[in-house]
Structures are given as structure tokens and as C-alpha cells.
Amino acid sequence: MDPELINILEILITLIAAGVAYLQHRKATSAIADTQAAQQTTENVLNFFDQTDDTVTVAPPVVQGRSFKMSEESKRWITSDRSPEERESLLRQVAEAEGKRLGVYTISVPSVWYNIEYGIPSGSGGSGKGVPT
After folding, report:
1. Does pTM surpass 0.90?
2. What is the rounded distance in angstroms from the CA atom of residue 30 to the CA atom of residue 117?
């Protein structure tokens, strides 16, 4: 075979190998970036549900609504025996907090207040009469 033809084939093979190496490098770099993003998302979700960590105050987008939305039964409970104005205020405060995807917040009206954790009115020490302290 002609030496020039062999050189051309070697150059062609080298170019193809370089192209494959470049594509593999791009794919690996993209996979590393995706893994780092997934790790950050996981860390944000864990921090959101960790009650001792207050660095994430708004639910990450991947947290499903049922994780922080109040059930209709809980809404009925917190608004029972309240005036129509207080009912409206309490429900508006819940809707605003859920709109901000907050996991932990306090709602209040002049006669009562509630600490809400992930859509659930807190048990002991989580509510009271008057202004929250």
C-alpha cells in the first residue's frame, strides 16, 4: 500500500479517536454536574425536614405539596368556634404560607395562635390564646 495512503488513514483514525474521546469527556462532565446537582437537592430536602437546621426555610421544589399542605380536617379544627373574620384570616395565613411552601410557621388572630409544622397544627406548646410569645 502507498505510504501516503497509510498516513491519511492513520490521520483519519486519529481524528475519529479524538472525536470519540471528546464526546466521552463531555458526557462524563455532564454526569458529574448532574450528580452534584442531585446531591445538593437531596441535602436541601434533608435540611428542610431537619427541625434543628434552619438554613432551608422554604420547601425545595422537589418536596411534594402533601408534605406541607394542611388537610381540610385540620383547617376545620383551627377555625372551629372562631368568628367569620378570624376564620378568613387564619385560612388566608395558611394559604400564604403554603404558597411560599413553608414547612414551619405560626398563624394568629387576636384570640388564638397556632404553630404549624408541615401542615399539622403542633401538639404540646403549639397553640394558645392571645398573641404568640
Report:
1. no
2. 37
